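Example record

The entry below shows one chain as it appears in the dataset: sequence first, then structure tokens.
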Amino acid sequence: EGAFYVFLDISETGYDSLKFASELLDRKGVGVIPGAPFGRDDYIRLSYAAKLRDIEEGLRRLKDFYYG
């Protein structure tokens, strides 16, 4: 009864969820799901059903994108 997802608030970025997801994929090679289909266009959905090292690398790239 668990999920392998987390919703991340991106409201402070100035992007809607589709633009954020598209830019993150283009710039950092990290795929996330826009929150808009779930009724939250100010969120993205991350999956953590992967190897720990892959999750850590994805989070590092996400941080670089967000703060870079």
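Notes for this example: The mean pLDDT is 94. The helical segments are 17-28, 52-67.
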